[in-house]
Amino acid sequence: MIFDPPLLPARLIRRYKRFLADMVLEDGREIVAHCPNPGSMLGLAEPGSRCWLSAKTGKGRKLDFGWEIVETASGALVGINTGYANRIVAEALAAGKLPGLPTDGTWRPEVKFGTGTRFDFAHEAADGKITYLEVKSVTLSREPGLAEFPDSRTERGAKHLRALSAAFALGHRAILLFLVQRDDCDRLAVAADIDPAYQAALTLARGQGAELQAYHCSIAPTGISLAKPVTFLP
């Protein structure tokens, strides 16, 4: 995924009301940017942090800038836009960069399953068997090399796990893919202290046939792309 036009460097003044962030641009202008991350952003919203912003264009936009990347105190780059996770995975699917998954270009996005649930992607084989793929964006890291999910309680995440179990019970393939939008982690674990209910739901889903995959990303102000697999810790 390429950033076009290029991102603009800035410094974070503060994040507030979840979706707003005061920034100062290189030319000294103070602006308000949209923060496209509804999570806690634990460790990623420190005042003074170096950030990169996209310039928004088009009608209907309330803010002229969107926050896309932040640099941590350790120098790691983190993609904070959760909306990009599906786009990154879609590009990886099209390029055949996810081993073991179909590469014939017939993945469908935003597929309804049951009542009130949608999976991020689905692929139907010639024999009618469906592969459901749900993607979760990961940004939290509280110790070097280890990414964690979630960074806040997520009933929606637990709901997706129950739906994946139901899909497997119907004879389909059900996959949960964690996309670590960081360039400094090679391991992933559930943040059980933040959401013990999610850990319980994940353990149950794995026992009922759901598959887990995890990848980290290559992050740069020029773009974000899927990189290498990440080890999921039990």
Description of the molecule:
This protein has 2 domains: 8-79, OB fold (Dihydrolipoamide Acetyltransferase, E2P) (Beta Barrel); 82-232, Trna Endonuclease, Chain: A, domain 1. It has a 6-stranded mixed β-sheet. A 5-stranded mixed barrel has the order 1-2-3-5-4. With 234 residues, it is of the alpha/beta class. The mean pLDDT is 94. The longest helix has 15 residues, at 155-169. The chain has 3 helices and 16 strands. The protein starts with 7 loop residues before the first strand and ends with a strand. A hairpin with a 1-residue loop joins strand 10 (140-143) and strand 11.
CATH class of the largest domain: Alpha Beta
**Gyration radius from CA atoms, angstroms:** 18 Å
Order of secondary-structure elements = EEEEEEHEEEEEHEEHEEE
Which of globular, elongated, flat, extended, rod-shaped describes the shape? Answer: globular
Q: Would you identify the CATH architecture of the largest domain? A: 3-Layer(aba) Sandwich
Largest sheet: 6 strands, mixed
Unreliable residue runs? none
Total helical segments: 3
Number of strands: 16
Structural class based on helices, strands and sheet pairing: alpha/beta
Number of domains: 2
What is the CATH third-level topology name of the largest domain? Answer: Trna Endonuclease, Chain: A, domain 1
**N-to-C terminal Cα separation, in Å?**
31 Å
Strand content: 35-45%
Query: Helical amount among residues, as a percent range?
Result: 10-25%
Q: Which strand order spans the largest sheet, edge to edge or round the barrel?
A: 7-8-9-12-14-15
The overall pLDDT average reads 94
